[in-house]
Structures
1.
Amino acid sequence: MKITWESPLLPPSATTKEGALKPMDAEQLREHAHRMVDFIADYYKSIESYPVLSQVEPGYLHEHLPDSAPKHPEKLESILDDIQQNIIPGVTHWQSPGYFAYYPSNSSIAGFLGEMLSASFNIVGFSWVASPAATELEVIVLDWVAKLLKLPKQFLSSGHGGGVIQGTASEAVLVALLAARDKMLKIGKSSLGNLVVYASDQTHSALQKACQIAGIHPENFRVIKAYSSTNYSLDPEVLRKTISLDISTGLIPFFLCATVGTTSSAAVDPLSALGKIAKAYGMWLHIDAAYAGSACICPEYRHYIDGIEEADSFDMNAHKWLLTNFDCSLLWVKDRSALVYSLSTNPEFLKNKASEEGKVVDFKDLQIPLGRRFRSLKLWMVLRLYGVENLQNYMRNHIKLAQQFVEFVNSDPRFEVVTPQMFSLVCFYLRPPPNIQDDGYKLNKSLLGAVNSSGKIFMSHTVLSGKFVLRLAVGAPLTEERHIKEAWELIQEQASILLGSLSL
Amino acid sequence: MKITWESPLLPPSATTKEGALKPMDAEQLREHAHRMVDFIADYYKSIESYPVLSQVEPGYLHEHLPDSAPKHPEKLESILDDIQQNIIPGVTHWQSPGYFAYYPSNSSIAGFLGEMLSASFNIVGFSWVASPAATELEVIVLDWVAKLLKLPKQFLSSGHGGGVIQGTASEAVLVALLAARDKMLKIGKSSLGNLVVYASDQTHSALQKACQIAGIHPENFRVIKAYSSTNYSLDPEVLRKTISLDISTGLIPFFLCATVGTTSSAAVDPLSALGKIAKAYGMWLHIDAAYAGSACICPEYRHYIDGIEEADSFDMNAHKWLLTNFDCSLLWVKDRSALVYSLSTNPEFLKNKASEEGKVVDFKDLQIPLGRRFRSLKLWMVLRLYGVENLQNYMRNHIKLAQQFVEFVNSDPRFEVVTPQMFSLVCFYLRPPPNIQDDGYKLNKSLLGAVNSSGKIFMSHTVLSGKFVLRLAVGAPLTEERHIKEAWELIQEQASILLGSLSL
C-alpha cells in the first residue's frame, strides 16, 4: 500500500515561532511517526538483503559519528539516512528469517503496536494509582495466559498468587530467589551463609548471577552435572543425595531451579520428581520455562510442565517465542506476599489511598526496579489480534520446520543430531573425519564461523559433554520452509569446503 | 495533516490463504502502524479532555474484559475501540500538561520514534555481537551526555570508565552497591555482616531496596536525618561522626549515596564535602541525580554537581526530564571492571570471538538482567532531533514556570512555600487557620485529594519535618504558562471551598 500526503506548505515544526521547543506537537508527531512507519515497513521488506549477523568490526561506529551532541536540531531525514548507512550495518537482524541463534526474540505487528501505544502513554506504573489500567490489564492478561497454560489455580490472581511481568527471566529468577531467601531468614532457622541453591549445570547463567547478587555464598551453589544419558536433564536421585549430604553438614537447602527447555539443548527437567523433593525439604521450587513455556499453550506439549503443582514460581518469556516484543517475561507465583516481603518499600511520596486500603496490588513490590512500563498492552494485543489458535499453530509450524531440519541432518552421514529434537531447537554437529586430529571441536567451531560469516544465516553453539555443538533454533516470525532448506544447503556447502580443505 | 489512502480491494491479512499466521507481513505492518500513529496523534490532541489522574475504582477493568483470551483473531479497530472505551479511562496521563505529580516521565516525538525503531529491530543486545550497533551507539551517546554534563574524564569510555543505560535509577544504585560490596569482600577485609551503607533520610527508597536485595544487614543501613536548617541536605559533620562511631565498633563503612535533587524536595547534598569523607574512608560514592541531573546540562546549573570528581558512580534519568521515553537511566562509572567483577557470567552459549578477544564491552556484565533493549537509539534521536540548545531551553522554561508558581503561592497569604524552589519543583502548603485543631496535615491532604479528584491536574505530596507538603513538579512536555496559571487557580479555589467548610 502506498500513502499519499496532502502536502502542507510548511511541515509542522519542532519549535514555536518564538523558537521554543514543542517536543510533543501532535501534528509533528503524526508526520514524523508516519515517516518512521514507512521506514520500518521498508526495513522488513528488505530484511533478507542484510547479513543476519552483523559483519562490522569492533569500534566501527566511532568513525561515522561525531564526538559530541549537536548544538542545533537536525532533520529527521538525515537521521534516517544515518540509521540506514551507519546503524543498520551494525545491527544483527534478530527478525531476519535466517536468524537461528540463541533463542528467538519475536517481534510482531501486534507486539509492535502495543509498544507504540505503551511508549505514547509513557506512564511509569509503579503503583496502581500511577495508572490503574496498567496494573489491572497486567493482572487480567496474565490470568489469561495462566489459563492457556493450565497452571494450577494458586497461580491465578483470584487467590494469594498471580502473575507479574518482569523484564527478563534473569529478573524473574532473582526475585524468586530473594523471596525464598528472605522467607528462610525470616523464620530465623538459618543465616545467609548456610543457605544452599540447587540446579543442574544446564541451568541458565541467570541463576548464578542471581546468587551473586543475593549474596549466596559461591560454595553454596550446587551445580549438578547433567549427562547425555538423561538428555541433559537433572537427575532427581543425584539431587536427593546432594541435599542429604548438605543437610548432614548443617547446611539448609532452600532453592531449587528446574528448567523446561534449557538454553543449550532445550532439555526438560523432571518436574514431578523434583517437586516431590522440593516439598520434602521445604525448598522453593522455581521453574524457568523462558523459551519452551510458550509451546505449552498447545495441548500436545502441555505435559512438559506436568508436575508444576509443587512449584512456587513459574516463568516464561512471551518475548521469545510468543510474538510479544522484548521485554516481557511472565512470572507467576503462588504467594505474592513472599515477593512483597522481600521487595517492598513504602516511602511517603508514594503513599496513596488505594494502596493504603489494601484494595490493589502495587507491582513495584514484586520486582527489582521501582518504575515499570505498560507492558501488558503488547501481550494483550498479541492475544487479541492473533487469537489462541493462530498462536498455537505458529509454534507448531516452527516445531515442524525443526523436524524437517532434523531429517535433513539425518540424511547426510557426515552430520549427526546430538540430542533429541526438543521443541524448535536442533542440536547437531559435523562428525570429524577419522584422518584428522580433532575431536570435532575445532571443526565445528570453524563451520559455525564460516556459516555465520556468510551473512545468510546466524546460528550459535553450545558445548555438551565436551562436544562443540551447533544449535539451530527455529522461531523468527518470518522464517518459512524455504529458509530452513537454504540454511541446510549453506551448512552442507560450507562443510564440504571445510572438509575439502582438511583433506588437502 | 491528513492522510489519504489508495484503498486496496482487500486489506493485508494477518494470515496466508492457507490460514497460517503472518505476524510480520510488511504491508500489514504498514497499514496497522499508520492507523496506530493516527490513534496516538489523536490521543495527544485530546489529552486535555481526560482527567489527569485516572478516576476509576480498583477492579474496574474486570467488568469490561472477558475472562480468557480469544480463540480467534479480532480486528484492530475493535481493539482500538476497547482502548478508547476501557483502557484510557484507567490511564493516569503522565503526558498531560496538567501532570505535576512525582517527577515527570517525558515522552517526545524523538523519543517515541526511537522506541518505534528499537521495537522493530527488537534485538536483545546482551553482548556486543548480539548487535554491535546497540553497544557502540550506547557508548558514544553516553560519552556525548557525559560531555554535556562536564563529567570528569574518568567517566568517559576512553579510559577504564564509561556510561551504561540502566532501566531505572533503582537498578543503577543497586549495581553500584553490588560493585562496592564485592570490592570490599574481594579484598577480604570484611564480611558481609560488617558492611555499612550511609545516606540521608531524603534518599530515594531505591537505596533501601538495593540494600535488602544485596543482603546488607538492615541494622547496617545508616539513615541520617536531614533537617530544614540544611534544606534537607545531608550534613557532612553528622555523617563523619556516624562513620567514626561505626568504625570504633568494628564496622566497615563502604557505600555512601548522595542525591542531587531528592524526591521529596529536590534537595542537593553537598558533594564536595561528602566526596572528601568518602575518599578518606575508602568508601564508594554514588550520586543519584535521577531527576535533577538533566538540568546540569545547562551551564548555570552545572555547579550542583561540583564535587563529582570524588564519585565512583553517577546516575541520571534521561526518561524523567530529558525527553527520552521511559526507560532510560544513564549510569556512569569510573571503573567498569568493578561492575563486571560483580555481575559477569560467561556461559558457553554466549561465548564469541569479539568478547574473547577483549575488544568489546558486553553490557550484560554491567547490569542485573541478561537481555537489554536498544535504548540508546531514542536518546540519540532526542539529542539530534532537538539539539543541545533546545534541550537546555526546554528545562529553563520549566524552571521559569516553577518560579512563576512560587510567585503565585507567595502572593496568597493563606499559602506558604515550604522549601526554596529547586529546579522545577515547588513544595508548598496551605497554612492551617488558627481556629482549627489541625497542624495542616489533614487540611493539605484534603486539599490534595480535592485537587486531584477534579481531574484537571495531578499533584503528589511528601512529608517534611512532619508537615504534609504539596509538590508541584513542572516537567511534562506539553505544559505551558497557562497550565500553571490554571493549576494555581484550581488550588486556590479548592482551598477556599475547604477553608469555607471548616469555618462553618
2.
Amino acid sequence: MTLNIGVIGTGAIGRDHIRRLSFALSGARVVAVNDINAEQARDVVTQLGIEAEVYASGQELIEAGNVQAVLVTSWGPSHEAFVLAAIAAGKPVFCEKPLAVTAEGCRRIVDAEIAAGRRLVQVGFMRPFDQGYRALKTVIDSGEIGAPLMLHCAHRNPHVSEAYGTGMAITDTLIHELDVLRWLIDDDYVSAQVVFPRATRHTHAQLRDPQIVLLETAKGVRIDVEVFVNCKYGYDIQCEVVGEEGIARLPEPSSVQLRSAARLSTGILMDWKDRFIDAYDVELQAFIKGVTDGQLTGPSAWNGYAAAVAGDACNLAQVSGRIEPIELPSRPAFYN
Amino acid sequence: MTLNIGVIGTGAIGRDHIRRLSFALSGARVVAVNDINAEQARDVVTQLGIEAEVYASGQELIEAGNVQAVLVTSWGPSHEAFVLAAIAAGKPVFCEKPLAVTAEGCRRIVDAEIAAGRRLVQVGFMRPFDQGYRALKTVIDSGEIGAPLMLHCAHRNPHVSEAYGTGMAITDTLIHELDVLRWLIDDDYVSAQVVFPRATRHTHAQLRDPQIVLLETAKGVRIDVEVFVNCKYGYDIQCEVVGEEGIARLPEPSSVQLRSAARLSTGILMDWKDRFIDAYDVELQAFIKGVTDGQLTGPSAWNGYAAAVAGDACNLAQVSGRIEPIELPSRPAFYN
Amino acid sequence: MTLNIGVIGTGAIGRDHIRRLSFALSGARVVAVNDINAEQARDVVTQLGIEAEVYASGQELIEAGNVQAVLVTSWGPSHEAFVLAAIAAGKPVFCEKPLAVTAEGCRRIVDAEIAAGRRLVQVGFMRPFDQGYRALKTVIDSGEIGAPLMLHCAHRNPHVSEAYGTGMAITDTLIHELDVLRWLIDDDYVSAQVVFPRATRHTHAQLRDPQIVLLETAKGVRIDVEVFVNCKYGYDIQCEVVGEEGIARLPEPSSVQLRSAARLSTGILMDWKDRFIDAYDVELQAFIKGVTDGQLTGPSAWNGYAAAVAGDACNLAQVSGRIEPIELPSRPAFYN
Amino acid sequence: MTLNIGVIGTGAIGRDHIRRLSFALSGARVVAVNDINAEQARDVVTQLGIEAEVYASGQELIEAGNVQAVLVTSWGPSHEAFVLAAIAAGKPVFCEKPLAVTAEGCRRIVDAEIAAGRRLVQVGFMRPFDQGYRALKTVIDSGEIGAPLMLHCAHRNPHVSEAYGTGMAITDTLIHELDVLRWLIDDDYVSAQVVFPRATRHTHAQLRDPQIVLLETAKGVRIDVEVFVNCKYGYDIQCEVVGEEGIARLPEPSSVQLRSAARLSTGILMDWKDRFIDAYDVELQAFIKGVTDGQLTGPSAWNGYAAAVAGDACNLAQVSGRIEPIELPSRPAFYN
C-alpha cells in the first residue's frame, strides 16, 4: 500500500522532500504539487521525473481526491492556512516549521485538531529523529545520569546574512532547541532571560551576536543556550545534560580522525543542511508510517504551539532585559 | 517503477533483507521467496505481512516470470549454484558472502558473468557502503595524507562459539578486510603471513586466538590486521591508514559521551549486527538503483574472487608459518 | 645560594609544602616552623627528618634572623595578621588562600605592601601555574581564537561535608575561578548573578547545590560557572573560551585510554588534591625564584583583593537573587 | 645533604642536565665538569653561573675527591670507558644511552658492576619515568586488561637528517621501545623480524623509511613497532597494549582542544625534546635519591645490555629479511 502525498511549496526544502519521498523512502509517492510559482513546480516534476499533477492552488491540492496526505513546505506565513485547510479536509499534514508565525496561530491549529477529534498534524522539527539526540534521550531515560539538573547547549552557525536580525536568533535558530529540549527532558519552560555578551566583530548592525538564553523549567532545571550565528568555525550543535549522578553529552558527528600538520583533528561541518541530514529521512518515514498506521507520533501541533509560546517570551526578554515568564496553558488530554 | 525481487533463503539475514526491501527502501518489493525449510519461508511472508509467493525451489524462483532480480541469502555452499542460475536466466543477483566457498567457484561465476556480457552480480560486502569507510576513502583519494604506506587494522569480536575454528578467522572474519582494504587503497595483495601471539585464555581448543595477518600489496603497502574474536570488550573495527603526509583513521561509531563513576567514556558496540546496520540499507538500495539504471556499481564477482584468492593464501599461511604469495590473475577489462 | 624559609601552619597543606621545599624543589630549605599546635609542628620536623627550629609563635618565626621568607599555611582567619607582620618585617611571604577572610582585610594588605614600596606577597592561587591553564592562555594570547566573548566553566566535586554551606560555594570553590579567569583573559568583573537549579538529592540541608554563577566583565565578556560540589562522578574542572574566530578548551588531565567492558574511556580524578598537584610545585618554585631574583611574579595581593571583592558580590547575589555590581577600584600603578 | 656531581660532556644534553641539577632538582649540585672541548665546558659553567671546577679529562673528574657521583653525557663511543672508570672508582654513574656502542661493551659493564658487588650504574632511558608510561604500566599491573597478548606501537619523527641511515632506525630510535617495552610488560624478546613498506618520498638514499619491526617475547606476546622518521606531521609516540580483557593505550600529551576553521583538534608535538621533557627531571631526581639512599632503582646496566642485544638482532633482521633469534643470557641474580 502506497500513500499518495501532495506537496505545497517546491522551493529548496520542498524539492528535497519530494526527492526523499520518491527515491529514498518506503511506502509513499508524490502525486500532487503546488507552488506560488507554478513554473517552478512544473520544473521540479520534470527534473525529478515523477508523475505528479501540478495544482493551481494549495487549497485545490488539499481537496484533490487522490491526495491522502499533505506536506506544507511553502513560505512560513502561509503555513497556518494550509494546515487548517488540511485539518478541515480530514487529511494528515506534515508542516515545516514554523507551524504558524504567531503563538495564537499555532493555538488555532491546536484547537482545530482537537475539534477534528484525531491527530492530523506533524510539525517538521527533525531533531527528535536525530540518532544522536535519540541516543542522548535513551541515556537520560535509563536513569543512568539521574535526574537532569542543568543543560548547557550551544547553537552555532559559521555566519548569517544581513537579513538575519536579533529576533531571528530566537525564531529561526533557538526554536529548534526550544522544541527538542522539552522533548529531551520531558519538561516545560517557566521563564526566560537573555544576556548579550560583547558582540563579535563579524556581526552586522541589525544583529546582536552572540546571545545567551537562560531558561528555567517547571521541574527547576536550568538551561543555558549559547546562540552564536557568526562563529566562523563551523555549524556546531552542543548539548550537555548534567544529572545527579553524571553527565551525558550529545555525540559529535562522525568524522575521520586525522594526524597531519602537527594537529590531531576531526572535521566540523560548515553547512547546517548536513548536520541532521539523516533525520529528515527518519522524520518523513515516521510520518508515512504514522499516517499508514493511523497514529501520528512525531512532534505535534501542541509541540509547535509550546515552542512558539516560549519563543515569544525569549523575544520579549531580548528587549526587556528581564526574566520573563513563559506561561503555557496545561496540556490538553488530547495530546497525552 | 518498482523492482520485483525474489529472495532465496529466509534465515536471519534473509528475513532482515526482506523487511528492508519491503518497509525501509525505495523502489523494490519482494514478490517471491524460497527456503530449504518451506514452512519457515511461509512464516516469514505471513509475519511480515507481505504479498509474496513461496516457491518450492530456488531454481523455480529464479525462473519465475515476475521475478526481475534475485537475492541469495541461503546457506553458503548453495550460493554458487544459485548465482550461476541467475546469470543463466539473465537476472541480476545480489549474493551474500561468500560468493562461493572456493576461489575456483568464484572464478566460475566471474567467467559466466563475462560470458553473459554484462554485470549481473553484486556481492554482499557492505563495508564499502559504510559512511565511515567512505569518508576514509574520500580523505585518502583527496591526497590529503599522501600515498598510503601502511595500514594498521583490527577486527575484534567479544566472543565466538565453539564451532568457530582457526581457519574461520580468515573466511568468516578477515574476509571483510580482504575486500574493503583493496577497495580503500585501490591495490592488490601479493603476499600474506600469519603470526600467532600468545593465545587468550578465553579461546577454545579448536581456535588459535588472536592472530595477526600481515599483507603486502602490489604497490608495496604493508598491512597488519589483528583478528581477535574473543576480545571480550566489544565488537570493534579499527583501520588506520599511514600516508606520506599524515594519518587517517576510520571514525568510531557515534556514541553519547558520559562522565560518570570516575570515567569519561563512550560506548563500544557488543553486537556485530549493529556496527554496519546502516550500510546494509545503503548496499541494497544501491543494488536496486543499479538494476533499475542497468548498471551495477557495488562489489563485483571479481571482488568476490579476489577476496577468495587472498583468503586461500592466508589460510595456507596459517598452516605453513611462511610468507605465502597471493597470485591474482590480472583483472579482466570487463571489470574496469 | 639557598633561601631560608619559615613555615607558619603545619597542617596537611603546610606539611606538604615543607616536603616540597625540602625534597622536590631547588634553592630553598625550611629552617623554621610554627603551629598553634606545637607538638604537631615538632612531629612534622621529626617525621620529615629536616633541620628546622620550632617557634612558639608565628610572630617570633617571622622575626627570626635566619628566616628570609615566610610561608603562611595556617588557619584562614589568621592569615591577614601574619602577612601584615611579614610585610612589616620586610620579608617576602607566600600566603595560602584566602589572603584575608574579608575584602577589607585584603585591602589592608595591599595598602601595607604599597607602603612598603616593593612586592612582598604571593597568594597561593595555583591555577595560573597549571600547565593546562598556561597552554590555554597561550592560545588566547596568540589571537588564534580572536577576542574572547564568552567563557563556559564548571567546578565540580564528587561530594562535600555537612560543614560546607551555600556561601562556601563562592569562598572555597568559585574563588579559584574568580582568580584564574581574570588572569586568563586579562579582564575585570563588573557584575554577578547566581541562579539555583533544581537541587541534587545528594546535597544536605545547608547547601543549595548546584549553583550557576553568571559574571560580566569590563570588556563585556559573559562567563557562566557551574559550581556543583556533590556531582558524584569526579573532581572535574572545565573551562571553554569562545572567541570571535574559534573556541579553546582547557585540556583534560592526561589518562590511559581503555577499551573494556563495552566502553572506550579515560579516567576522571576523584580527589581535588591530584588535579593541580604539579602546579603546587611550580608555584612554590616560582616564589623561590621570585624572592631570589628580587621580583615576585605570581598572584599578587591585588589579585587576592580582586578575587575577594568579586566573591563578596557573588555571596550577595546568592541571597538577593539580583544582578549585583562588582566594584573594584582601579588597579594601583604599583601592580602593573 | 647535597650530592656532589661531576658531569662529563657539556654538549646540548649535558648542559641541560647541569641546568636541571643546579636549578630544578633537589639534593644535588654540579661541582665538576669536563668536555673534550675545554672551552665549551668553561663557557657552560660561566653561562649558568654555577661553581664547578673544569677538569682536563673525564678520568681526572671521576677520581676527584669531592665528586660523589658521575654523569656521562659525552660522545657515545666514549661512554663505556667512563662508566667502567666510575665503577672502578666505586662511584655511582648515570650514563646517557647508549651504555656502550656494542652489546659486548654493555656486557663488560655488567660484569664489572657485578664484580664491584653493588649497583652503581643507571642508564639514561627516560621513558620508564614518563607519567604516561607509568600510568600505562599501573593499568597493566592491576590486571584490569588481563595478560598482555599484543602491543601495537609507533615511533614517528617529522624528519631526520641525511646522516641518519637505515640502521639508526634501530640504534637511535627503536632502542627506546626496546628498553621501555621489556619494562612495561616484564618480559624478554626472543625474535625479531623487519619488513619494509613502500618508502616515503620524503626519505633519502641511505634510509629505508618507514620500517616495521616485529618482535616476539618469551611469554609469546607479539609486538609491532612502526618506525617512521620522516612522517612529516609530528613527533608521535604510540603504544597500545591488547590484553585478554581489554586494551590500554598510552595517553596523548595534554593539549588545548580547539574548534576552529572547520576542525576540532588538539596539538601534536613536533620536537622530540618536548615529548618526555618532564621525564628527564624525574629520572635524574631518581638517580640523586637512589645514590643518596644507597639503592639505585632506575634502568640498570642489565637493561642497557638487554636493549643492545635486541638491537643487534633487529639490525641483522634488517639485512637478512629473516626472523632472527634474540638470545639474551638469563638475568644474573644480582639484577633481581
3.
Amino acid sequence: MDTNTPPPSPHRDFPVVGMVGGGQLARMTHQAAIGLGQSLRVLAVKADEPAPLVTPDVVPGGPDLESLRALAVGCDAVTFDHEGVPQEHLRALVGDGVAVRPHPDALLHAQDKLVMRRRLSAMGLPVPAYAEVTTPSQVEDFAAEHGWPVVLKAARGGYDGRGVWFLRSPDSAEGAAAGAPVRDLVAELLAAGTPLLVEEAVEMFRELAAQVARSPFGQAAAWPVVETVQEGGQCVEVLAPAPGLSEERALEAQSIALRIAHELDVTGLLAVELFETAGGLVINELAMRPHNSGHWTIEGARTSQFEQHLRAVLDYPLGTTSMTAPVVVMANVLGAEKTPEMSVDERIHHLFARFPQVKVHMYGKGERPLRKVGHVNVLGADLTEARRTAVLAAHWLSTAEWEDGWSVHSGREVGDRT
Amino acid sequence: MDTNTPPPSPHRDFPVVGMVGGGQLARMTHQAAIGLGQSLRVLAVKADEPAPLVTPDVVPGGPDLESLRALAVGCDAVTFDHEGVPQEHLRALVGDGVAVRPHPDALLHAQDKLVMRRRLSAMGLPVPAYAEVTTPSQVEDFAAEHGWPVVLKAARGGYDGRGVWFLRSPDSAEGAAAGAPVRDLVAELLAAGTPLLVEEAVEMFRELAAQVARSPFGQAAAWPVVETVQEGGQCVEVLAPAPGLSEERALEAQSIALRIAHELDVTGLLAVELFETAGGLVINELAMRPHNSGHWTIEGARTSQFEQHLRAVLDYPLGTTSMTAPVVVMANVLGAEKTPEMSVDERIHHLFARFPQVKVHMYGKGERPLRKVGHVNVLGADLTEARRTAVLAAHWLSTAEWEDGWSVHSGREVGDRT
C-alpha cells in the first residue's frame, strides 16, 4: 500500500494493526491494543463474532483477496487470528507493499504440516517419524516399518483435533471415520483432495508448549514453558510453569522455539507444541499467532501474549515475560453437551460469589458442545489448589454444575455436616 | 425502561452497561468489559474521544435527557465517566425504571461539595472547617475566624484543580484570577452564578486516597490506601501502598471510605481523597466512578478498578483487591508545553527499548499542555526504583526527553565514562 495514501488513523499518531479473522484471539488482541493507544482493525465474516462485538474498526469479509486488500489499507501491519488464508493472497499483499507478519514464507510452516515436518527435520530438530501419503496403501507401508498405532493427519486445515485420525490397526480407524478400515479412510480422504501425512504415534508423558515472540528487528522473548492438558485433541488446561520440568529441558524447549523463530524468520508469536517422551522432547505442531497455550499470560505474565504480538508485529521492543505469581492455571470454558438453563450471566454471578479471585475471559460466543467460549485464569502459590479452582470454575461456567458438589445455598460441600 | 422491549444484546446473554461520557475512564472500562463477555455502551459527544475510538456501541450526544434516554435503552445499568450530569435528568431516568448507579441521591455528594461537606460533617467525619459563600464579604469573615490562607471552591463543576482558588490574604488571590483582591473575585464568581464555599487551608504532610467498591447487594471491597502526588492541583503520581502509612491509619482511611459508601448507599466505585495532617486524616473530595488514584490497579491489583466498577454496578460479587507486587507506582502522561516533534508512536518504541517492564496506557487523545493523555504503571519491590522508572517513563512519553540525561544511542547515562 506504499503508493496509496492511507486514510488518517482515528487514533492520532498511533499505528493500526489489521488482523485476519474476528475470533477470540482478535478480541483479546484488541483488548491489549487499547492500552497501547491503538484500536485493532479486524477482518470478520459476521458482525457477531467475538472481535467485532468489541472493536469499532471492522472490515466485513473472509480471507479473499479483495477483503484482505480492504483490510490492509492504512494498516501498519497485517497479522492473523487464524492460519486459513491462501498463500497466493498473502503473496499478493506482500507485492502491494503490505507488512504481512508473519511473512507467508514463515506462515506456510504453520499452514502445512508436511512443509513443517520437512523443514524441522532438515534443521535436525526432534520430530516424529513421518511420511507423505499419496496412495491408500502408504499408511500400512509406514506402519509396517514403524509399527501400529500411527497418526494420520490432514496436512492443512485441521485444528483442535479435527483433521487427525489415531489408527490402531489396519482394520480400525478412530475419529471421523470410526470403524472404517484404514485403507478405505485414506482412499476417501485422498479422493476428497485432502493432503495427508502419517506419523508414528509418539509415546509421551505429557504435552508441553514453548511460546516466544520475535520482531522484524530480530529481538525475541520467551515465556516460561507450560504443560498443556488435552482432552479429545483439544486443549482444556494449561499449567504455568510446566510442573516438575527440569531447568535443562525447559531451556531446551525455549531454545527449540527461539531457533525455529529465527531460522523461519517468524515475526509475531510462535507457539511450539511439544511431546515430552522418555527419549526427550518431540515437536508436534507450530502456530504463528496468539495461541490457547498462552491465554494464561493475560494476568499471569508481565506482558500478555496479545500485547506482545502487537509489539512484535509493529517492531516495538518486546515486553518482560516474567510471571506474576509462582503458579498460573488456565482452564478453557467449553460449551456443554446441553446448554444450561441458567444464563451465562447468572453463572458468572455465582462463580464470583464462590471464587472472587478467578479471572474470567468470555468471548461473547453462542454455546455449542465443546466449543471454546471462554477461559479462566487462576494465580496462586500452590499448583493443586490453583488447578482445582480453575477446573471447578471452568466446569461451572460450562455446565452450571459444581463438580465437587458445592451448594450455593449453604456455601458448604454437600454432605458437609459440620 | 421496564415497559419497553429492549433490543436484543449483540452479546448473547451478557449484560450491557451504559456509561455517560466517552473519556479515558470509559475507554478503560470497556477494556475490562471485554473479559467479562461484555461490550461497554458509551454516550459520547465526539467520535474521536478515547472510548468511542475503541468500542463499537456508541450513542452520540451529551448529558441531555434525550441522549441519556437513548443510552439507557436495553442497558442493565447506567453509570458515569464524569459527574457532569444534571440531577433532574438522572431522576427522570430513575423514573423510567433505569438502574442508575450510583443513584442520584448518592451521586449528588460527588457533584456538590457543599452538600458533601454538610453530609460528612453530620456523620461526624473529619472535614476541614468550611462555610457556604453567598455574599462577597463572607470569605473574609471566614478568614477572620479561621485565619488566612483559605481555599475558595466552586461547589459544582470543578476538576483537576479547576474551580479551586488558594487565597493567601484579602489582597491576593492565586489561581484563575491571580492578583485580584479576594472580594472582587468572589463578587465576580457569584455574579456568574457559581455556587461557592470556603474552607480552611489544611496543613498536611501529603494526600492519600482510599478507594472502595460497593454493590447494590451491599457487598463492599477496599483496595490498599495510596498516596497521591499532586502538581498544580492535578494528580501526577500514585504510590501504592502509601509508603510509611501506619496500619492503623490505613484502616481508618478504609473505614471512612466504607462508611461513606454504606451511609450514602453508593453503588459502583467510591474514591475518597484525604489529607494526612498532624491531627489525623481530613477528607478532601469524593468521586463516584473510576478515578485517577486507581489507575495503578490495572496491572497492580488482582481486580482492576474498571472491572470492579462493572461488577459493582451489575451487582456481581466483587473481586479480590490484593496487590500483584509489593509496590506499584502510577505516573500520568501529561501533554507537554510544546508537543515533541517525535511522534507518540516513536516515543513508545524508545520507552519499551529502555524499560521493557513498564505498562503503558495511552488514551488516543490529542496532546495539549497538561492534558492527561495516558499513564504508566510500574510494578516492583523497591519504591525508589519503581518511582524513578515511572517518572522517567511518563516524562519521556510527554516530552521525548529523558530527565536523567540517558542517551538512546549509547544506552548509557550521559557523562558515564565507564
